[in-house]
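Kindly go through the entry underneath: sequence plus fold tokens. Please state briefly how this chain folds according to its tokens.
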Amino acid sequence: MTRDGDHMPDQPDYNRLSSLTIFRELDKNELEIVCKHVFEQSVKKDNVLFVEGMPGELLYVIISGCVEIIKETKNNEKIILATMGVNDIVGEMSLIDSEPRSATGRTSEDSRLLVMTKKSFDKIIQSDPRIAAKILMGLLKIISRRLRTTDKKIEEIKKIVKK
């Protein structure tokens, strides 16, 4: 157990990785390589994974549980932008652009997460660029889907505002 009561990280297995959207295009050998660069972690409810403005160094894939993405307003009001569930990814932007976190991520129930560090991802880029390209394509598909969903929401808001 860690100091905050969470379980120690575990190595994921091949079957678990192959079921996740981000790794779906990888073959067995590639998944075995990725297994060496990620770990699983159990996290209690209400655990803050990352805070808006802090440096981003970790990507999380939700294996079980939920993570709320929260934005704080100028009036210190907290707005839940999204609730992410099984197979969803949070923190992916930090793996790509190394910018500070754009929101806060907090577990809304006990959760099991797959974690990849920026350092581990950079190692994959150096040692296995083909695997990194497949992972990036998986991320691009996810980000593209989210952008389309956001576009639809903006269109819905525009219709409401025009009324």
Observations:
- The helical segments are 14-18, 28-35, 92-97, 118-127, 129-162.
- The CA atoms of residues 49 and 105 lie 5 Å apart.
